[in-house]
Write a structure and sequence with these properties.
six-stranded mixed sheet, five-stranded mixed sheet, 11 strands
Amino acid sequence: MKIKKVGSVIVSVLLTSTMLAACGGNESSGNKEDGLKTNIVTIATGGSSGPYNIIGTALANEYSDEFGINSKSQATGASVENINLIKEGKIEMAFVMSDVLTEAVNGTGNFSEKVENVEQVATLYPNFVQIVTTQDSGIETIEDLVGKRVAVGDQNSGVEVNARNLLAGHGITYDDIQVDYLGYAEAADGLKSGAIDAAFLTSGLPNASVLELSKTLDIKMVSVDPANIEKLAKDQPYFVAMEIPADTYGNAEAVPTAAIMNALVVSSELSEDDVYKLTKSFFDNLETLGNAHQAATEVSLEKAQEGMVAPVHPGAKKYYDEQ
């Protein structure tokens, strides 16, 4: 009798487990149908203190919560590295600058051949070229950088690419300055210690490293003549003349400088349906992204298709066509 009782209990447990598994399987199948085909969306960003990484981390959290996938941001050397990571199939999505993206799709500059598997989701917000120095450096304009020790961003980052191009547009090469390849945080430390005279920290506004630096050091933002930017834009149309607003970093007046639009890109290997859902979620969560970093408040659905420099992914196009 005892044996029969134990056996019936085992059978009952097995039947219950089977039914629960079946229910769980149906639920999972339903979620999968409403979710994504891919289980992973890694978003390549930039330096850990920059807007790319802050916004990318917030976006990855939203993707993970909404779709139940493994989505995370990955701090990198930014634009050039990000596109190479997409090219190599190591990531699914990335933040990049439009100048680097232009080089990638055309196979110029940092890219010896066209990158065929990168497609654009949206034009984002402007990255301002923020050339930072100290009040006692004697540096007023970009031309004054000649002979100075200058941080130009991580090697082959988007910051470094536009620093090199902007300097070249003013007749300045790396032979005319002492170059240090430093990211945001390292450049700020270099200015604080006096190891460098000036630094390019190109990003959305405000840049956390510059903001922090302004609290402990008497900094100055170096100006760039808008007329020179307009001339440069004839050959490199992604450059636009803009101003760093007054009081961004305690600066009494607005500072004229160059800006480059940022882009959100994905691997063309992602399905149309997945990118449609990722694009929709991105725009649905703009308020959350704006709360994470002020730069994201400048992103809008109305301007997302303006100034695209790469082929638009079919999934993103489907989303725009529905609006």
